[in-house]
Amino acid sequence: MSKYEVEALKDLKASKNRVMTNVVRQIEQRTKPKQSKRWQYSMLTVILTVCIGIFIYAQINNGGELSANAVPILDEKIYDMVIQEAIEKNESQDLINSNFQTLIEMDAYYAFAISKGIKFSEAAIAERQRFEREQLERSYKESTIFKDGFSKLNLTLDEYYDKYMKVFSVKLLAQSELMKEYYQKYESSFQIHAHSAVKKEAMDYFIAEYGLQMAYLENKYNVSKFNMATYYKYGTVVAIEEDRFLVVTGALQEEIGRLSNEEMINKHTNGIWFPLHEVQQKITIGQNVNITYSLQEALNQYDFVANLDEIEISE
Questions:
Q1: Strand (E) positions, 64-165?
Q2: What confidence tens digit (pLDDT) does each residue in 251-266 have?
Q3: Cα-Cα-Cα-Cα dihedral of 209, 215, 217, 221, to 10°?
C-alpha cells in the first residue's frame, strides 16, 4: 500500500474515531437520570448524522448490491430526519449546526468525486464495506459503553451495519478517493492540510452547483456555521514546501536560508506549518503574516501543523 493510500485511510480512521468518541459521549450523557427520557432520540440523531440516515437505505436497498449511482444528494427527507428531530428534542444549536455540516460535507465529497469522473466499481464498494465492517466490529468489541448504546436502541451490530454503514460506505469511498488523489500530488502533505484542501475543493464545487438548494435548507433549519475555537499566529514566513508554508515568530531575515527549518524552530521555540493552497499567489518567503486558525496538531516539542481560516500580510 502506498504512502498516500495509508494517509487517506488514516484520515478516514481519525474522522470515524472522532465520530465514535462523540457517540460514546452522547451515550454517557444520556445515561444520566435527569436526561433519560431524551436519551434514545439524541443518540439516534448522532447515529443518523454520521451514517446519512435510514431513508437512503429504504430508497436503495432492493436486495441487490449497493450501487454508487443510487446515492441521492441533498435529499430533504434525510435532512428532515436528522435536523428536525434534533430541533424538536431541543439539542444545542452547535450540535444542530454540526449535524447539518456533516451531511453537507459528505454530499459534497460524493458530488465532487462524481464530477471529476471518479468511478466506483462494485468491487471497490464491496471492499469499502468490508473495511467499514471490520472497523465497526473492532469498535464494538473494544467499547462496552458503545455496545450498551446499541442495546438501548434495540439495534444489533448487524442491523446497524446493514441500515447505516453499508449505505454510508459509498460517500466514505468518495472521500477516500479524493484524499488518495491529493496525496498522489502532495505525497508528504500533513493530514490537516490534505483534508482541508480536499474539503475546500469539494465545498467550492458543491456551493457553485447546489448553492440554491443549500441556502433553502440552511434557511429551513436556521443553521449557521459551526463555532470553532479561534487561535492567532503572528510571525515571518521562513519556508515554503509543496503544499505548506512555515511561520516562525521572532525569526530574523538574516536567519532565513542560513538556518534549517528545524534549527529555526528550535532557536525560537515555535513554528507552525499552514496550508499553501489558498494563498499560494500571495505568500513569499520573508513576509510577516498574521493568521487566524482553528485546528492544530503537534509535530514535535515546538512545531505544529494547523489549518488556515484568515490571513493578513504585512507590506
A1: none
A2: 999 999 999 999 999 9
A3: 160
